[in-house]
Amino acid sequence: MVEYRKHILHAQRSFIYFYFLLFITLVIIPVSKTKAQNSLTYERPDTSFVYDEIPVLVLVEGYGSFYIDVIYTDNDLLYINIEDLFKTLKIACFVGQKGDSLGGFIENEGRTYLISFDKKQVKVGDKIIKSKNGLLKEMGAVYMESSLFGEAFGITMTFNFRALTIILKSEFELPVIKQQRIEKIQSNLAKFKGEEIVDTILHRNYHLFRFGTLDWSAASFQTWNGSTDNRLGVGIGTELLYGEADVSVNYYNKQKLGNRQLQYLWRWVDNDKSLIKQAQVGKISNQTISFINSQIIGAVIRNSPTTVRKASGYYTINAFTEPNWTVELYINNVLVDYTKADVSGLYVFKVPIVYGYTILKLKFYGTMGEERTEERSMNIPYTVMTAKKFEYGLSAGLLQDSSLSRFGKADFNYGVTRFFTVGGGVEYLSSIPKAALIPYTNFTWQPFSKLLINGEYDHGVKARGLLNYGFTKNASIEIDYTRYKKGQLATRFSYLEERKVKLSLPCRINKLIVFAKLDYTQFVYSEFRYNLTNIMLSSYYKQFSSNTSAQLNWIDKRPAYVTVDQALSYRMSQGLTIRSSAQYNISEGNFVTCKAEIEKKFPKGCLSAIYERNVTYDDNFVNVTFKYDLSFTRINSSVTHSNGKFTTSESAQGSLAFGGGNKYVYVSNNSSVDKGGISLYPFLDLNNNDIFDKGERLVKLSSVRVMGGKVIFRKNDSIIRIPDLNPFTYYTVGFSDKDLENIAWRFKNKLCKVLIDPNQFKRIDIPIIVVGEVSGTAFFVKENLMKGIGRILIKFYEKNSNKVVAETLSESDGYIYYMGLTPGEYVARVDSVQLSKLNFTVDPPQIDFSVKATEDGDIIEGLDFVLHARQIESLDKKK
Fold it and tell me: For residues 375 and 362, is the Cβ–Cβ distance under 8 A?
């Protein structure tokens, strides 16, 4: 912003100066024209025009803009500094020893060029362009007339004098645009891999104990002239022994409070470690071969990280929940996608293939604000590893069954190549008679991104093969075959074979979206075969959606039992939705159920009414539900009539997160346990030590960039809170100097990578430094006249050091300006190389100055340098 204001100021000054010169030239000095021209032909004795050097803004499509000094003449010719332009555009440019020639290559290394000021020619490849007045030399720099750039290099420039802008286009991809494109690709790839280049990385803060979050829920269900059921739930999230500790209890007044109502888990994660990256103690979950219907109390250690490291390819999962429920997909406890079930309850996910051991979890949220969410953990058949990478896992514990069965598992995976992964291990379950130990092995082969093949052998239990192929952009087919050993007791299945085929065919025709699905499953028993088939067609068109499905099941060659479901939904204006559904039994020729629903949505809530007729049981079901979301809670109440009885229900849920600073408590209507947050403290770092010291004050901000987080600004303090973040995960937080209220303020770190601590707000001090501005003038003395001189390079050094901390060029009128020096002692000098090249001397050789620490930024003026031509040059001219 400062640079922009500075250039506008000097552009206006140069603009007025130019018109003044033009007025003098055209009106007052026609008589003494020769004398005026001679005074402006320094190093150009054969030039017959008047000029002015002005800064202009160059606009490059696909890149952006930048300022450059140009020479504009009274005959409307524009001359561009070749070296400055080419260096900005990243075009190779090398200056000759005498400064009279420039060379390099354009577009590619085979297309070389040479610009010779002495010969007044431009050579590009075998092409030579001569131009008497096309090249100028001013202050040691070579300028070229703008039209020559198009003729020689294919770079066209359109100049707008009123706006002082140049629109630049090229016939080839400019190196600066190519570099920007590559950097963007690399940046996106780095973000995807979690390797984004940032100014600073903030790692975990470890604590023995820190209390941070609390979830609560309450519900009551009343049957008129009957009993009342009450449920209460409380969850507490803390940091304990350097790890995350979550405890929750669910109380039900009609059940004795026991171990099953109590959930607890301690989790430690450090993805930077090599031997052990994560550990869990408490009620653990695990992917098992054996059928386990009880919770496991035990421990797990793994060397696989919790981050989501995406490989190539996807596979599709689709299943059913309640109609219009929201479904979230979590991979390794990180939310990666969400969708909404259709009018029949169908939801579909394209699950990305992820490197390493993967935990897949689904969360379901009801339309009426149900106080609990259902979680499903799914066994992932595909494990893909990077080449030469080894990961392991060890787990052990006791089952909460009647016999307290002992459980243990050791597994490993190894990437043989990028496309082939092998794995194996052993599982132990003491409750399996005579076969408690199950060794197993598996592999995943991905010959190309759309084809996945998995094989698994579990000794004494089963052998399985699975193929998933995506044959168009979104369509896929999955073939799954499992053969069980006769008499095995690990899985509790009595059939010998399981054969499955799943076909998914999504398509889109203009605004019509169609999803077709075919599932066929066959269970092979020793004496018969049982078949299940589901055919479904789901479609969406604008506000209308429809779902038709047919279920068929039969044994061997017996007639099939067939039912058909039809569901329709229409979304009207002003948040009103009408739904209807029916189930028809084709085999018996009668309806099973018929249902109608109307829903009215309004800000933060909805009201719905449902009528359902159960033909089979001759029952009518009527329900009216009201839901409303407050900032601190989500409430829900309903009235139901069924079987001649009225029932009512009320529920509420919410959460609290503590430690946000300044006695702040974050309240939410969602869960806060197993989450983390950030508290940002932007402060003026007057002594530049990165520490929020006594006497330094907070700075009010109105904008912060963070991916995947909600930023909270408050009027009564300057602390910025970002809640509801995934723990043990890096988030990138970005700042911009444009958001600061003072142009002298700068963020020391504009891009921070933060690892979230569990169940707490992580305090981060954001230092804002105050910079000073320096100004002065570069003068040139000629024939006892002193005038400002442009393009003089001024360098700023730390005092008593040769370290260059900043540099700037003088403007066309000699004005020197730079803003951005932090408090300290400095020395300003004119660049010695440029002085030697121009054969100039300077007085004084250097200027010492200091930048003081003040809230508004120090201002230093009077950095004036006077340049003289060396005496030997004057003697030569006298001769």
Answer: yes
